[in-house]
Amino acid sequence: MSPDRSRSTQRFAESATPVETLSRRYVACAATTIALVMTALSMGTGRAHAQGGATGARPPASTTVPRPDAQASAVRKWREQHEVEIVRELTTLLEIPNRATDRANILRNANLIKAMLERRGLAAQLLENGEFPPTVFGELRVPGATRTVMFYAHYDGQPVTVSEWATPAYSPTLRAPPQADGSLGAVRTGPVNGRYNAEDRIYARSASDDKSPIVALMSALDAMRATGQLPSVNVKFFFEGEEEAGSAHLSEILAKHKELVAADVWLICDGPAHQSRDLQIVFGVRGVMGFDATVYGPARALHSGHYGNWAPNPAMLITELIASLRNSDGRILVDRFYDDVVPPTASELAAARALPPVEADMRRALLLGASEAGNAPIAERIMLPALNIHGIKVGEVGELSNNAIPTEA
Ligand SMILES: [Zn+2]
């Protein structure tokens, strides 16, 4: 996911993981996502079906349909007994570099994920797209199921700046939780008696965003089969290889494979847990659109003593322009901007208000005296369009500062 790339700190960087600019990523364990997947796979017809599908899925051990809480606890128990294998499958995937433009390694990732699907008896294929990263597609048909759920995740990752990594990005490293001052936790040697400390983290590129969901989904399938359950819906998987590079060819792939990718619902497994650390399913995803703008001043830098108040200063022009775009409550002031913005409904607002309150804790942890719109709840705020500035580059400061009216901003 490419949400607003603002910086966050400490425990909210842990729970609200999509801080795309932070290079160290971690995931405690695939277990929480398995629970989410359990919820997801239980949707649909509400009935479990007894046999493996035409794709060669193995039949479950029993045909009884346990209650949802019993299902969840059976899966949880299975997961506790298989943490070592789950984490091993994740670290094997994390060891393969995954920048979208690294063709050779992207294909290694794609082929490994395809093999992971096939090992579980799913029909899997690479949806090739010329020189661009293929999508790994998998399908589990469930006899009698009338609905289809698509699970999306992406296997590519952001580029790595080697100097920002305490340990190499493609050498997954297990660590204790960060210390109180925010510094890295101690390196762990591995599981103890087959169990991981649920608060430990694996540091590697894409450990959380977004390879972990892929392994969690596979593990959820394993757990369901091992505990005699089968999804009540047809299940498809769409693992993209170009998300962090802007998904430039996603629409082509979707158009080309229209029937293959048809589903009643897509679950995008590429978002954060709630800041309270509870699991969450979010209806709708915030999109992002960006641009660079340049404001020009004089053709060459001018002495501010000789030309100030005469030559327009691009630093002033750009800040005035930006300040005119929104007010301090985030209301976008561009004419007619809200004409096609659908406001949240009363039930959506009620759902947002029913979320655990986390704002006061977050303000404290982030050293914010106040948040926008009179400390309004974050869930309400992110349902509205936001206009943000990623950076302004103009002139020189500090040691390089000089008395100049710059040429552009
Ligand atoms: Zn992502």
List keywords for this structure.
single chain, 409 residues, alpha+beta, five-stranded mixed sheet, three-stranded antiparallel sheet, 10 strands, disordered N terminus
The CATH class label of the largest domain is: Alpha Beta
The CATH architecture term of the largest domain is 3-Layer(aba) Sandwich
Biggest sheet layout: 5 strands, mixed
Q: What's the CATH H-level homologous superfamily of the largest domain?
A: Zn peptidases
Strand content: 5-15%
The outline comes out as globular
Please name the CATH topology of the largest domain: Aminopeptidase
Order of helices and strands: HEHHHHEEEEEHEHEEHHHHHHE
According to DSSP, the number of beta strands is 10
Give the % helix.
25-40%
Q: Which compounds are bound in this model?
A: zinc ion
Structural class: alpha+beta
Instruction: State Rg.
Output: 24 Å
Please explain how this structure is put together.
There is one protein chain. The protein folds into two domains: 19-268, 3-Layer(aba) Sandwich (Aminopeptidase), CATH 3.40.630; 302-405, Alpha-Beta Plaits. The chain has 13 helices and ten strands. It has helices at residues 10-15, 31-41, 68-81, 83-94, 103-119, 211-226, 250-256, 304-307, 314-323, 346-353, 359-365, 372-375, 378-381; strands spanning 26-27, 123-129, 132-140, 148-154, 173-175, 201-203, 234-240, 265-268, 302-303, 404-405. Strands 2-3-7-4-8 form a five-stranded mixed beta sheet, sandwiched between helices. The chain has a three-stranded antiparallel beta sheet with strand order 1-6-5, with no helix packed on it. It is globular. The protein starts with 9 loop residues before the first helix and ends with a strand. The protein binds zinc ion (ZN).
